[in-house]
Amino acid sequence: MGLKSSVRTCSVIALCAAALGLATFYARTPVRGETRTHAGQEAISITSIYAQSWQQDRETVYLLRGKCQIAQGGTTMQAEKVVIWRRPDPKVKGKDLLTVYLENGVRVDEPGNTQTEPTLLRELSTASGVDVLPQRAIITLPGASDPTYKRGLARRSSTDKSTIRPAQFDNGPLLPTEPELADPQPEFRVMDLKPVAGGLRRVRFFGRNGGTYSLDSYPTKNTTPPEQVVILKNGVTILIDTIDANGGETRVGTIDLSADQVVFWSDEASVRGFNGEVTQPQDVPFQIYLEGNIVVRQGSNTLKARQAFYDVREERALLIDSEVRARIPGTTGTVRVRAQSLRQLARNTFHAENAYITTSPFLKPGVRLQASSIHIEPREETPWWAQNVREVDPNTGEPEEGPTLWATSLDNTFYVEDVPVFYLPTLSAPAEDPNIPLREVGFQSDRIFGQVIRTRWDIFKLTGLDRPTGTRWDLNLNYLSYRGPQFGTIDNYQGFGRFGWTGTYIGSGYQSIIYDHGHDNLGQDRSDLIPPHKWRGGILQRDRQDFNEHTTLQSEFSFLSDRNWLEQYREQEFDTGKDYETMAYLRYLDDNWGFSAMGRARTFNYYNSTNWLPRGDIFGLSEPLFGGLLTWSSHSYAGYAAQRIANTPTDPNDLYTVLPFEGNASGLVASTRHEIDLPFQLGVFNFVPYAMGEDTFWSDAYYNIDSPVPVDGRIYGATQVNEGSMNRLYGSLGLRSSFEMWQVFPSVQSDMFNLNGLAHKMVFDADYSYSESNQALGLVPQYNEFDDNSQEQFRRRLLVNTWGGNLPPQFDPRFFAVRSGAGTSVSAPYNELVADMNVLRLGWRHRLQTKVGPINAPRIKNWMTLDLDVSYFPNYNRDNFGQQLGLYSARYNWFVGDRTTLVASTLFDTFDNPEQLWSIGINSQRSTRGSVYFGIRNISGGGTLHSEIMTASYSYVMSPKWISSASTAYDLGERQNRGQTLMITRVGSDFLLNFGITADPTKNNFGIAFSIEPRFGNFGLPANGGGSGPTSGTGFSGFGSSGLGSLLNGPPGMGVGPVN
Asked: Are residues 97 and 161 in the same domain?
C-alpha cells in the first residue's frame, strides 16, 4: 500500500505540475485582437508597396499600404494597411519599441499558431534594428488626417486607457524566483469593441425645402418578423449614411433622396418610437417607396424619377420614368440616361428598358443613342498581355478597388434630331465611356481623291470585346470616288507588367488597304503616275518595352505596297516621320557605358535600306584614366550587313537615279573608334588636346559610277564597281579650347523691352583637327544611312530635274558632311563620313540675359542669343573649293516677351556657285489659345536652284464655341503660289463641326472638307489651335481628335498615323 500510495502521489504531483504549466501558458495567451507585447532579440523587417513617414513628438510614424508584412524571427504579420509608431526605449540603449496597428485582412503566423482578424494592435521590441523596405520610395509628408491613421490612433488611445496591468509585468517571469509562491497578480485582457458585423446604417428624415412633413406610423402583423410601416407626406428629404465594420465611412458615401411622398418598412424594434432618425445594423431590412418629383443625389450624380422603390439592405431598386445624370470621369461633362424603367438588381448591376443616352443638357437632345435594353454589370478586367494593375487613388495612395462597370445595350439606334442614322443590334463598352461606336464621320471633295466619305469606329464597341486598360483600337471605313474603297485600323496602347515583366510598355500602329483605280498626284512633274498595283496599302506597328531603368526593347514591323503610297496617302508622315523599318533593338545603359543589339530586315525595296543580321554596339563615353588625368571614349560595332539598290519605278515619268553611295553588297562590317582626351585649364582658358583613331573593315566594298544619260525614259542608272574587301585606317589629332567673358549692366532698365538689368556673356571656342585616312571617301561603302527616305527620294529627283544627272561636287552630301564634321565624333552613327581634312572651326556665342519674375524670387532668362561660326581650311584647294574660309553660319533669337520671338538663321559659303540658306520669322504664342507666325525662308545654290518661300499662319480659339486656323505659302523666288488652307471648327453641345478649304497649285488641287464628331461630355477645348513655326503653317495639329487636318493634307480618313 505504501508503494502504491507513493506512486499515486507522484502521479498526482506530475499531473498538477503539467496542469499548472498549461494553465500558465493559456493565461499568457492573449484574446484575439488584444494588445500584446512581443519581445525578441531578432531584427524586425517591414515591407509594403507604399510608405509614408513623418516625425511626431519623439516618435517616428509609418503609414503603410498594400501587401504590408512585418517579420520578426518566426512571427509574421500581414495586412493591407498598417500604422507603426517607433520610439527608442528610454531604459535600454539601442532598443526600439514599436506599436503596430493592422487592419484589412490581418493574418498573424507564429510557430504552431495562425490568427486572422479584421484589426489588430500589438507592441513589439527589438535590439537588433528595424528595416523599412517599401517597393516605392518613402513619402515624407505628415499623414495625421489619414482615416487609417485616425482609426489606429483611436485604437491605441483606448488600449492605453484600459490597460491596468503595470508594464513591468509584461515580460516578468511566470513564477517567482523564491521557493514560496507569491501572491497572485491580477491580469486584465484588452478586448476589441467591434462594430456590429456588416456595419451600421443611419437614416435621417427632413422636410423638403425646409418645410414639415406629416407622419403616420403603424405596425404590421402579417410579416415575420413584425415590421413597422411609416408614411410621410408633404415633401420629404432622406439622408442615408453607412459605416463599415471597421468604423469608417463606406465608399458609397451619403445618399440624398427627396420625394413628395415616402413610405418605408423596417424592423419594428428599430423603428418603434420613430422621431425622424433611424440607426440600425446594415443587415436589418429597410425598404423605401418614393412617389412624386423624386430626386436622388450621390456625389456629383443625380437621378430623377416619377416612382421608385429601394431595398436598402439588398441594394435593389426599381425606378419608373427615370433620368440619371452622371459625371464622366476625367472630364468636366456629364452623361444623361433616360429610361422608361430602371432596375438595380444588385450592387453595381442595373437593367434599363427603353432607354437612351446623351450628353445634351436639353430635354430633346439633338443626338442620342436609344436602346430597347441596357444592362450594366461589374466585370473584372482581363488584359490580353498585361497584369491587372489597379489605378492608384491620388488622395490616399491606395490602389483603387472594385471591378469595371460594363454596359451592354440591345437594339441600338443612333438618332440625329429625330432621324435614325444607323442601327446596331448589340453594343458593349465600359459604362464610364458613353461614346457611341461611331467616333467621326467626314466628307471631302477635291481633284485628287474625288468625293470622299470617311468614318471612324470603335472596334471594341462594335464587337463587344473587353477593352484592355489603356488601349484604343479604331476601324476606318472610307470611300474615295476617284480612287476606290479604303479600310483599315488604328491602334495605340500603354500599360505596365506585360507578360509578367516589370516596367512600362507603349505602342501604336495602323493597317490600311485600298483598291485604287486612280493615278497618283504628287505634284509638279509627278502629277499623273500610274501605281504598280490596284491593291495598295501599308502596315506599321511600333512597340517599346522598358524592363527597368537600364534595359529597353524597341521593335517595329512595317510594310508598304509600293514606293509612292505613303507619300500619296500619308504625306505628312512621309515628310516628317521616322523611316519605316522592320527591326528589333535591345539597349542596355549603365552609367557612361551602353550596349545594344539590333536586327533589321527589309520587307520592301523602294528606299535605300541596310539589313543588319544582326549587329552589336558598345559605347563608352568619358571613362576616366589615371585618376582623371585622361578620359577615354570609344564606340565599337560589328554585324552582317546587306544592302540592295532600290527597285526602279514602274512608271518612267517617276524621276529616279541611283545615288553614288548605293550598291548591291553584303558581308561583315566591323569598326572600332577610340578617342583619348587630356583636359586641363590654364588661367581662364580651357584646353582639351585629343587623339582619335579608327579601324574599319568591310568584307564587301563597292562604289558607283552614275550613267550620264537616262537608261529608260527619265530613269538614270549606275555602274557598280566592286572592290572586294577593304580596311580603312583613320586618325585625327586636334585641340579644343574655349574661354568665357561677361559684363553686367545693372542700371539697364526698360519697361518697353521688359529689362531688369542686363548681363552680356560671351564664349569663344575653337577646334583644330588634322585628319588622315588611307582610303578615299568615294571608295568607301555607305552601309549606315545618313538621310531619311523622304530626303533620299527628293535627292534622286533633284539630281535629274535640276542637275541633269551630274551632281556638282559642292552639293555632294557626303563631302558636305566631311567638311562640316558630321562623322568626326566618337558616337557618330555614320562613321564612314570622314576623310583627309585640315580645319580650324571657330565659334562665338553671345547671351544677353535679364531678370524676370517676382522681386523676392527673380529668375534669369535669355533676352537675346547669337551664335556665330566659321571654318578655316589651311588646305583650301582640297578641302573647300579654293576658299580659305567657309561654312559661315549664324543663329539669332530675340525673345521680345514670354509669348513673342524673333528668329533668324543663315548658312553660306563664298566659293563659286555655293549654297546659300537663310530664314527670318516672328512667332507669337498667346498662352494655349493660339499662335501666329510669319517668315521667309531662302534656299539657293548652283545658279539653277532658287526657292524663297514666304509663309504665314495663325490658329486661334476665338471663343468656347469657335476655333479657326489659316495658312498661306508663296514662293518669291519662283513666283509661284504654294497653297492656302482655312479651317473653322464649331464646338456645339452635341457635335464638333469642322469645315475646311485647301488650295494647292503645285498639284492643281482644290478641296473642301467637312467632318462631324458626336460629343459625349465636355471634353474641353484643344489646348492649342495649331502648331507654331515655319513648318506648321500647312498643318492642323491641335484640333482635338478631329482628322480634318489629315484630310486637307492628303491622307483621306486614315487619321494622323501612329504615335511615335
From this structure: yes
Rounded-to-integer distance, Cα 78 and Cα 753, Å:
64
Do residues 749 and 736 touch, judged by C-beta distance below 8 A? no
Note whether 151 and 211 are same-domain residues.
no
**768 or 337, greater pLDDT:** 768
How many angstroms separate the CA atoms of 673 and 681, rounded? 26
pLDDT digits (tens, 9 = 90+) for 189-199: 222 333 344 57
Single residue among 167, 186, 221 that ends a domain in this structure: 167
Q: Hey, CA dihedral for 770, 772, 778, 782, is it positive or negative?
A: negative
HSE-CB of 449 using CA atoms within 13 angstroms: 26
- Same domain for 139 and 236, yes or no, is no
Same domain, 133 and 70: yes
Pairing assessment for the beta strands 316-327 and 277-281 based on DSSP bridges: unpaired
- Maximum pairwise Cα distance, the chain: 138
Residue with cell 440607426: 279
Whether cis (ω within 30° of 0) applies to the bond prior to 394 is no
Closest CA to 569 of 627, 645, 488: 488
Per-residue pLDDT tens digits for 618-635: 999 999 999 999 999 999
Q: Would you say residue 215 lies in a domain?
A: yes
Cell of 948: 524663297
Distance from CA of residue 778 to its chain's centroid? 45
Domain total of the chain: 3
Q: Rounded CA gap, 860 and 507, in Å?
A: 39
| Number of helices followed by number of strands (H, E) in the chain | 10, 50
Mean pLDDT across the stretch 810-814?
A: 90
Do strands 349-358 and 367-379 pair parallel, antiparallel, or not at all (unpaired)? antiparallel
Tell me what the mean pLDDT of segment 315-333 comes to.
75
347 or 291, greater pLDDT: 291
Query: What value does the mean pLDDT of the chain take?
Result: 81
Asked whether 456 and 440 are in contact (CB, 8 A), the reply is yes
Alpha helices in 379-513 (DSSP H): 459-463
Q: What is the predicted pLDDT for the residue at 461? A: 81
Place of cell 477645348: 1021
pTM of the complete model beyond 0.70: no
316 by Cβ neighbours in 10 Å (0-12 / 13-18 / 19+) ranks as: middle
For residue 271, CA distances in Å to 204, 280, 310, 603 come to: 12, 9, 17, 78
